[in-house]
Amino acid sequence: MKTVKSNSVNEIIIKNSRFITLLIEVFDDTDINKIFEEVKEKYPKATHYCYAYITKTFKKASDDGEPGGTAGMPMLNVLEKEGMINTLAITIRYFGGIKLGAGGLVRAYSKSVRDAIINADTIEIEEGYSVKVVVSYDEQKNLDYNLKDCEIINKEYLEDVTYTVLIPKDRIDILSNYSYQIIKEEYIKKFS
Questions:
Q1: Residue 53, domain CATH
Q2: Whether residues 112 and 137 fall in one domain
Q3: C-alpha distances in Å from residue 94, one per residue of 10, 11, 50, 68
Q4: pLDDT tens digits, residue range 49-95?
Q5: Are residues 114 and 172 in the same domain?
Q6: Where in the sequence is the domain holding 52, given as residue range(s)?
Q7: How much is the pLDDT for 39?
Q8: pLDDT band at 160 (very low <50, low <70, confident <90, very high)
Q9: 92 — phi, psi (to 5°)?
Q10: What's the Rg (C-alpha) of the chain?
Q11: With contact defined as beta carbons under 8 Å apart, do 31 and 68 qualify?
Q12: Max Cα separation, the chain?
């Protein structure tokens, strides 16, 4: 799986119509409406604002007035085929005066998203956990060694040392000798 490392913009022209595709990292659907308002302000007078997004728990697509099934679902299919997650694709279309037909629209919206992904800066991610681990000061060096390939978010030094760590699901067993608490499941950068 992968996601966009940073938001990106890609534009293609098909039979005089401009297709501008934005790829934006999202984690849930709470900010989607705000993002759409910003997009509509930045790209006024567009004919259509079609979108598809996929997160761990949600996926949704919209044709925004294009014939049913010719924009949003093809866009979502590309996101899924390319292994994208936590990604919102918005394709803004400025109609160029030449009708593309249903098949042409499916190909255009699919190509627009596919090209945007190819040209975007993406990062591999995997399922993991955000975890709190509590150890004594004596155990700290050993834990640091075990977590050398994990992302340590924070260390808090009080009576004991409390780590906040991002750890891949398949590596959680390295914490079996420690007292830990899983805060939440999430997607994390893939460790090399």
A1: 3.30.230.30
A2: no
A3: 14, 11, 11, 18
A4: 999 999 988 999 999 999 999 999 999 999 999 999 999 999 999 99
A5: no
A6: 2-120
A7: 97
A8: very high
A9: -95, 125
A10: 21
A11: no
A12: 72
Do 9 and 60 lie in one domain? The reply is yes
Q: 132 and 102, same structural domain?
A: no
Q: How many independent structural domains does the chain possess?
A: 2
DSSP the chain: -EEESS-EEEEEEETTEEEEEEEEE-SSSSSHHHHHHHHHHHSTT-SEEEEEEE-SS-EEEE-TTSSTTSSHHHHHHHHHHTTB-SEEEEEEEE--S---HHHHHHHHHHHHHHHHHHHS-EEEEEEEEEEEEEE-GGGHHHHHHHTTTSEEEEEEESSSEEEEEEEEGGGGGGGTTSEEEEEEEEEEEPP-
- pLDDT value for 191: 54
pLDDT score of 192 = 44
Q: What is the pLDDT of residues 101-138, one digit of tens each?
A: 999 999 999 999 999 999 999 999 998 999 999 999 99
Tell me, yes or no, whether 11 and 69 share the same domain.
yes
Predicted TM-score (pTM) of this structure = 0.82
